[in-house]
Design brief:
Helix content: 55-70%
Order of helices and strands: HHEEHHHHHHHHHHHHHHHHHHEHEHEHEE
Number of strands: 7
Oligomer: single chain
Distance between the termini: 66 Å
Strand order of the largest sheet: 4-3-5-7-6
Shape: globular
Length: 499
């Protein structure tokens, strides 16, 4: 027991340290990180923890779990970039623990350590383990649900008493349905993927009594009841808008149309993009993706020899379950028209366990991968320590904020032209109580001529044209940076009127 506690503690704190490095020096990256961070701040300001807002408008994109986690972090660390990202580092570390625990049960300590290591050192996990978004919370609870689902499927009475076996099944049953509920609260219906994985078990194991072990009616009712504790008040307060926009636009809309340029609305391009995730996984799952082809080949091999021709052995069932969860995740996002490489992250714990189980069977690959793991970990740490300070000046929102923060006052109003990214709201609202107004070019001068303190952020060339003869008490700040969303360099000027 002491050894197990030591292992879990070592893994958890090592993962937190690994993911947290650099989170304090890299500005929040448009557009998602500032949206999440600001929505959580506005929850605190409004004392409304049911309906998220961004820049004084409803934010129906995601359910509230990640916002709640950020709110808790703000209470401890204050409202800053580090605090916005810290909950994700905790979630990523907890995913590693969940993988380790599951790996211990299905393959022993070596499989557990390698699976946790493979997941943590995957390129996409390295990036999203630091991001102030909802994905790691989704991955955590989907992984817990997948592991609990497998335990229920594989439950059998051996040396344990019947009473102990029933208690274990009840425990896994509760973990399964509670995890489904929290996965939904993290990122919506996609969190219910483990139900499909469990259902697919009938394809390769027809003897398992799914209905009896999972008690689907009671379990789904429990999941819906937990979700409803938040969803019903949210629907009432928004007069049903949360369902119409949150599900209608951000779930159904993403499925049948590309949102924010992620994918294509052309049917021909859609067909060409069908292999998207089967290609990008070789980057997202790097460096372990070099072993994926041999992993796939190995999974096709017949392993019935251990038990004759009467069915799969325990290892085969585990493989098939992990493959089913991975395939379902990839298949769902393959048919969805909106595509981003990180959407398949919920499958990475399953891929990690599959690869770890194959890896420990070969001492040659274990020795080789030890060197790869050490090298990759050192490279990632160096990138996290050195990279953010080097590129921080390329983020125009934070740099303009740093230049002007001593002149900002809470009662100020502010607007922006052309560059209206969420990062402006996140950084400037840390000093200003008002909301960002999106302006057209012909609205800039009338906006600044209104009474009261205010400022506007415009392209530098436009500022030279509009404010060539600005009053002497006005101040200007200019910065050259990079608009990550649009992939182009920008030069912005902040024009400030203090009264």
């Amino acid at each position: 027991m002491k050894s197990a506690i030591r292992n879990y503690a070592l893994l958890f704190f090592a993962c937190v340290l690994f993911h947290v490095i650099g989170t304090w020096s890299l500005p929040l990256i448009d557009r998602d990180e500032p949206r999440f961070a600001e929505a959580s701040r506005e929850m605190i300001e409004r004392e409304n923890y049911v309906v998220p807002y961004f820049n004084n408008h409803y934010r129906f994109d995601k359910p509230p779990l990640s916002y709640w986690a950020q709110v808790a972090s703000y209470r401890i660390f204050g409202e800053n970039d580090f605090a916005a990202r810290f909950p994700t580092t905790i979630a990523a570390a907890l995913v590693a623990l969940a993988i380790f625990a599951w790996g211990s049960r299905i393959g022993g300590n070596r499989v557990a350590w390698w699976a946790a290591l493979i997941f943590t050192l995957s390129l996409q996990v390295f990036a999203h383990g630091k991001a102030a978004v909802a994905d790691m919370w989704l991955v955590l609870f989907v992984t817990l649900a997948h592991s609990a689902g497998y335990e229920l499927i594989d439950a059998k009475q051996t040396l344990n008493s019947q009473h102990s076996t029933l208690n274990a099944q009840r425990r896994w049953w509760w973990i399964f349905y509670l995890s489904l509920a929290f996965a939904f609260l993290a990122k919506g219906p996609i969190g219910l993927i483990p139900l499909l994985t469990v259902g697919s078990t009938r394809i390769f194991d027809r003897e398992v009594e799914l209905g009896k072990r999972f008690a689907f009616v009671r379990g789904i009712a429990l999941t819906l009841a937990i979700i409803s504790l938040w969803a019903v008040p949210a629907l009432i307060r928004t007069h049903g808008e949360f369902l119409r926009v949150g599900i209608g636009r951000h779930v159904i809309g993403r499925s049948f149309g590309a949102m924010e340029g992620h994918g294509s609305n052309s049917f021909v391009v859609y067909l060409l993009l069908l292999p998207f995730y089967f290609v990008t996984v070789f980057v997202s799952f790097f460096p372990w993706s070099i072993k994926l082809p041999s992993l796939m080949r190995g999974l096709w091999q017949d392993r019935k020899a251990a038990v004759g021709d009467h069915g799969y052995n325990a290892r085969d069932k585990i493989d098939m379950y992990l493959v089913a969860g991975t395939a379902i995740t990839f298949a769902i996002f393959t048919v969805v028209m909106t595509k981003l490489p990180h959407y398949t992250l919920p499958a990475f714990p399953l891929l990690s366990l599959l690869l770890a189980r194959q890896l420990v069977a070969s001492e040659f690959w274990v020795r080789r991968f030890k060197g790869i793991a050490t090298s990759v970990a050192v490279i990632y740490v160096c990138i996290a320590l050195i990279g953010p300070p080097l590129i921080a000046s390329a983020f125009p929102s934070r740099e303009l904020f740093k230049q002007s923060e001593n002149d900002l006052r809470p009662e100020m109003e502010f607007g922006a032209v052309d560059f209206t990214e969420p990062s402006l709201v996140w950084y400037f609202r840390s000093r200003v109580r008002g909301w960002m107004t999106t302006l057209d070019r012909d609205m800039v001068k009338p906006f600044m001529e209104k009474p009261g303190p205010r400022f506007v952020i415009v392209p530098a060339k436009l500022a030279e044209t509009l404010f060539a003869d600005h009053p002497g008490d006005w101040k200007t700040y200019t910065h050259r940076g990079f608009n990550i969303v649009k992939g182009k360099r920008v030069e912005l000027t902040l024009v400030l009127k203090s009264n």
